[in-house]
Amino acid sequence: MRIYVITILLVTLFFSCAQDTRSDPGAGPPTGTVQPLPDTVRFAGKAREALTYARARKMSTNRCILIDMSVHSGLNRLVEWDFKTGSIRSATLVTHGCGTAAWAADHSRQAPRFSNVPESHLSSLGRYRIGARGPSQWGIGVKYLLHGLDTTNNNALKRYIVLHSWDKVQNREVYPSGAPESWGCPAVSDAYMTYLDTVLQNEKRPVLLWIYY
């Protein structure tokens, strides 16, 4: 009888903890939606630079968003880096700008181009402060303004470059195909944006987003 009671208590505790983890905005995105995670070593150096930058500018020291545009666009090249653990918390596909190529295709999946020029329809490299949350006509209907902090991306607001979701972006890696190409915005899947939206709303300080090649 005692063994039976202990077993029931352990099972109850297990499911309670599992439910608490899923409801915690910092617990991570839905299981199986962003696998596999990229190699931590690839992002570690940039993450150390990001932490120094964030501390100096009173930005979040919980996490940052890193986007390595040298990675094939069909692979998970956006990572949410956890400054506390020094590791990748989540990762996903993300779009880059199509330029003069067809919108929503994947012509430059291995060789994206970049620009800070309005109407170029290209993404801009550099560090961004993730700003105000607002309504969007895309994806789950939520966008975040991106404030360009470098000379390479200081036209972001003028160009309407924002972080949003797009139903054309898959919730899994699609290599050797690439992610659909946008008009310059870093767009993610609806499922990942749902997770990220909760994370960003719970941050007390602005989060750094860094796009680099």
Give a summary of the structure in a few sentences.
This protein has about 210 residues and is of the alpha+beta class.
Describe it for me?
With 213 residues, this protein is α+β, with helices and mostly antiparallel strands. It has one domain: L,D-transpeptidase catalytic domain-like (Beta Barrel), CATH 2.40.440.10. The protein has three helices and eight strands. Strand 2 and strand 3 form a beta hairpin. The longest helix has 22 residues. The N and C termini lie far apart (62 Å).
Please give a handful of descriptors for the protein shown.
single chain, 213 residues, alpha+beta, L,D-transpeptidase catalytic domain-like, 8-stranded mixed sheet, 3 helices, 21% strand, globular, disordered N terminus
CATH topology: L,D-transpeptidase catalytic domain-like
Could you spell the SSE succession in H and E letters?
HHEEEEEEEHE
CATH homologous superfamily caption: L,D-transpeptidase catalytic domain-like
- Radius of gyration from CA coordinates: 19 Å
Helical residues, percent: 10-25%
Largest sheet: 8 strands, mixed
